[in-house]
Amino acid sequence: MCALSTRGYSGWLLIVLSAIGVATAPQITAATRPNVIVILADDLGYGDLSCYGHPTIRTPNLDRMAFEGMRFTDFYSAGEVCTPSRAALLTGRYAVRSGMAHDQFRVLRNRSTGHLPESEITLAEKLKERGYSTGIVGKWHLGVWSINPVGHPRRHGFDFFFGLPHSNDMDPTSIAPRGATRRPDQDALWWNAPLYRNDEVVAHPADQTQLTRLYTEQAQQFIKSQKTNPFFLYVAHTFPHVPLFASKKFRGTSRRGVYGDVVEELDWSVGQILETLRRERLAENTLVFFTSDNGPWLIMNEQGGSAGLLRDGKGSTWEGGMREPGIAWWPGTIKANVINTNVACMVDIFPTVLHLAGADLPSNVTIDGRDISPTLLSGKAIPTRPIFFYRGTRIFAVRKNQWKLHILTQGSYNQPKPEAQDPPLLFNLDIDPSETFNVSTNHATVVADLLHEIEAHRATVTPAKLQLEQVSILEEPVTKKTSKL
């Protein structure tokens, strides 16, 4: 299998770019302590960016980011929906290990008392030990601190927070007309999402047409304030999760409708952040990684995104539910215009960033991710290992090399019960990324090996206290406040 290529661009520019850094990998030492920015979209599909093949959504900034860096073709989320995915990202562990996954309660709600356990060690906490300043801008979704203060990002290693505690559709005191909760209305500000700066409510309800702009400005301010100190910034965009809102500048500008408007504004945000790094002369010491928490919410029809040629979407363990865009950018360190076909996963961000920062992995917990810095820095192949596809607390599928085995299947939201697959379904994703042709009868040895991988992994998992089923009888406190932002 070809792990790396520079397809898609030709001529003298490709020759020059290929010559830069091809001889030796950049030397990263413990003293380097690069800045790190992780940009996470919400419900963005594998096929929603123009650099991943969308025909009408324009994403010039993400396209440029991919051209100047590395674009992964086989990068996976570690969860099929918001909360487990975000828990895995920040801990390097599948969410079943922290109790942040559940078979019935899919995500934390606005009345949830559960939260990311304080015993979990986050990327922010480990980087603070190395002298990093840490900030999160955007959606948290790992605890509602107005009900339980332990859920606050500042209890999990972040110095600064600006954003929403949960998804933008969680609305305990809605004055919306009955049945209107998913209605595409750009002027419907009855969504009761509270906007916080640290512990303070700065707007309630938040004007969601302004969220992407506000997140971008806060991210830029954080970067500028940390020019002399290494920093970790986690930018977790609210969109394109429904309900969809775009600012007036982007409203009605995309051929793809409001969904396209929202994605194109998100692309603008990425461009603003990267340009800030360039202006502040921080680009060459900053690793930026862009991805999405899970696949597109297909049952929202035109309000949801696209998984391209992949099967199904958000909430499922088919490829469309968990294979995501993945773009790494670090000018002068990550070679430009690389298409990387290695299999990688969101849990890999944790150990990779810690290695680059010169920090040790936690010694008392199991880390599921692998350090993939060798592939980022010098294009080396990622050693073969299995990637597990959880839906709630159960393994539904596993991938190893080109092979993916399903032992359980379930549609995203419109299939009521999981369907056991006995014998399991096997797909060769190199040939069949749409998971159409079951080839299990022709590859009994592969099936046996992948079943063994599942059992070996299960033996490492100790059941954790389930956090998502803990719900207060009280609603999230409501403190109406007009924004001054």
**What's the domain count?**
2
Under CATH, the topology of the largest domain can be stated as Alkaline Phosphatase, subunit A
* Percentage of residues in DSSP E strands: 15-25%
Rg, please? 21 Å
Q: What form results from the Cα inertia axes?
A: globular
Please list the strands of the largest sheet in the order they lie side by side.
Answer: 1-11-3-10-9-2-8-4-5-6-7
Task: Indicate the percent of residues in helices.
Answer: 10-25%
Oligomer class: single chain
Reading the helices and strands in chain order gives EHEHEHHEEEEHEHEHEEHHEEEEH
CATH superfamily (homologous) name of the largest domain: Alkaline Phosphatase, subunit A
Structural class: alpha/beta
Write the layout of secondary structure elements.
Elements (H helix, E strand, L loop, with lengths): L3 E2 L6 H8 L15 E7 L18 H9 L1 E7 L5 H10 L31 H7 L3 E7 L20 E5 L30 E3 L2 E4 L7 H15 L5 E6 L20 H23 L6 E7 L26 H4 E7 L8 E8 L3 H9 L15 H6 L8 E5 L2 E7 L2 E7 L9 E10 L15 H15 L27
Verbal overview:
With 485 residues, the chain is an alpha/beta fold. 22% of the residues lie in helices and 19% in strands. The chain has helices at 12-19, 60-68, 82-91, 123-129, 211-225, 257-279, 319-322, 349-357, 373-378, 444-458; strands at 4-5, 35-41, 70-76, 133-139, 160-164, 195-197, 200-203, 231-236, 286-292, 323-329, 338-345, 387-391, 394-400, 403-409, 419-428. The strands form two sheets. Strands 1-11-3-10-9-2-8-4-5-6-7 form an eleven-stranded mixed sheet, with helices on both faces. Strands 12-13-14-15 form a four-stranded antiparallel sheet, with helices on one face. The model is unreliable at 7-23 (pLDDT under 50).
